[in-house]
Amino acid sequence: MNELIIGAVTGIIFGFCMQKAQVIRYDRQLGALRFQDMTIVKFMLTTILVAMVGIYFLFDLGFVKLSIKPLILGGNVLGGLIFGIGWGIVGYCPATAMGALGEGRYDAAFGLAGMILGAGIYAEFYPLLKGTVLTWGNFGKVTLPTALGINHWLVIVILGIAFVLLFRWFEKNGL
Asked: Which of 38, 100, 136, 139 can bridge 108 by disulfide, Cβ–Cβ 3.0-4.6 Å?
């Protein structure tokens, strides 16, 4: 099957799951930003866990190759700040903005336009950033299992248990 078709199908399924989990609702976004509603956090952690299991399962079977990107703290901090400020201003991240637009909430279009503008500005400043911020704290291609020197399945099991305990704590506290 064509990779584009697979991408489109998985994207539609992911969008459907986001809509059903109500993570594209503005009040859920605001609740997450105010640490009052952890629906989005639970959805993201579930997505991360499913992706870890799926990717490493396929990796162990030899169906996929991992393309590890280098850990560059300067870029991560700058990107995290830009992402966080944008999310706080708009009330959507890129995926939830697309989902909200798909539901007919046109306020998300302004956020998406801002994201495209921001990407253009980043592209203009990339040559400058490439020699400065994007070199600060370069730790190379590292993953949690390689950094700890343990098998990736042990990391997945530990994180899975931690996520389940965190979910239970959220539920116990009404989050």
From this structure: 100
Q: What's the gap between Cα 85 and its chain centre?
A: 15
Number of neighbours of residue 138 by Cβ within 10 angstroms: 12
Q: 41-86 pLDDT, tens per residue? A: 898 899 899 999 999 999 999 999 999 999 999 999 988 998 888 8
At 29, list the tokens: 């976004």
Q: Looking up tokens 């909430």, which residue turns up?
A: 105
CA distance 146 to 67: 14
Are 40 and 93 in contact, with CB atoms under 8 Å apart? no
- pLDDT, tens digit, for every residue of 9-44? 988 888 888 888 888 888 888 888 888 989 888 988
Q: Model's pTM, two decimal places?
A: 0.76
Average pLDDT across the chain, whole number: 89
Q: What does 91-148 look like in DSSP terms, one character per residue?
A: S--HHHHHHHHHTT-THHHHHHHHHHHHHHHHHHHHHHHHTTGGGTTB--S--HHHHH
